[in-house]
Amino acid sequence: MSFGPDDDPDRPADPGPSWLGPKAGEGEHPAARRLGRGLALRAVVPNAITAAALCAGLTGIRFAINGDWEKAVFAILLAGMLDGIDGRIARLLKAQSRFGAELDSLADSLSFGVAPALVLFLWSLEDLPRFGWFASLAFAICCVLRLARFNAQIDVDDQPHKSAGFLTGVPAPVGAGLAFLPLYLWIASGEDLFREPVLVAIWVAGIAFLMISNLATLSWTSIRPRSTIRLEAIALAGLVFAALLTDPWWTLAGLCTVYLILMPYGFFSYSRIRQQRAKSAKASGSASQGAPGE
């Protein structure tokens, strides 16, 4: 069976929704179309990283089935780390492709939607008849819907959040990390309160809502420390990394708390930008109305 020029799965993708995969993350722009056909050898590296992220997420489910919760969480966190570098490597090597786009979208939906939902269900939510499974389903579905929304909007020019340096809702990898907050606290403290299925179900449903919400959230591109504190920021990053090595569970819980605290800051920051845009548009409209006609 032969492929036509439009059916070749390894043909470099045109700019548009199919560019989602290893080409870029949220807040990034598609590169120009590359000429030629076939999946270049250099494209194997970023796509192999994406496949490794997919395998890490699915392996987290295996660890959860065996009741090894720490390894299950670490496997999904590793998937998040790999997901954060595959797009950058693809752009560095100029190796974006339609194949990579499809693989990345599939890996994200499984690693950050299905895998965390199953891990949390096996850990706690299975003790809550019916509603526990519905909470897990809600998380997985909302993650997939978020990725589908990103696919649909990637080619849209009018994106107010993106143009201001913000994201819409909580990103899928961050949502997976936040959903594990009760599990972090349970491992760190040993308190059964954090494993209470009702509380976990409410928490998981709340994070699922945040992923598909229209709230403006901070992105890495919008975080620009002042030049006077950049050395302090570097030192803080080093200390956080050291804390992850020595006491990972409390550190992860602390990082989740910091992110949640910063969410209102992102919301009010974008509100100020929106008000400034509205004033500028109103001033431009008034100026155009006051201009003499020809």
Describe the structure.
By secondary structure, this protein is mostly helical. It has one domain: Four Helix Bundle (Hemerythrin (Met), subunit A), CATH 1.20.120. Helices cover 66% and strands 2% of the residues. It is built from ten helices and two strands, in the order H-H-H-H-H-E-H-H-H-E-H-H. It has helices at 44-65, 69-93, 98-123, 131-153, 160-163, 172-179, 181-189, 197-212, 230-246, 248-290; strands at residues 166-168, 216-218. A two-stranded antiparallel ribbon has the order 1-2. Helix 2 (69-93) packs antiparallel against helix 3 (98-123) and helix 6 (172-179) runs antiparallel to helix 8. The longest helix has 43 residues, at 248-290. The protein is globular and about 65 Å long. The model is unreliable at 1-21 and 29-36 (pLDDT under 50).
CATH top level class name: Mainly Alpha
Q: In DSSP terms, counting alpha (H) and pi (I) runs of 4 or more, how many helices?
A: 10
Query: What composes the largest sheet?
Result: 2 strands, antiparallel
How many discrete domains? 1
Radius of gyration: 21 Å
Structural class: mainly alpha
How much helix, percentage-wise, in residues?
55-70%
Protein name: CDP-alcohol phosphatidyltransferase
Keywords: Lipid biosynthesis, Lipid metabolism, Membrane, Phospholipid biosynthesis, Phospholipid metabolism, Transferase, Transmembrane, Transmembrane helix
GO molecular function: phosphotransferase activity, for other substituted phosphate groups
Subcellular location: Membrane
What is this entry, summarized?
It contains 10 helices and 2 strands, in the order αααααβαααβαα. It has one domain (17-278): Four Helix Bundle (Hemerythrin (Met), subunit A).
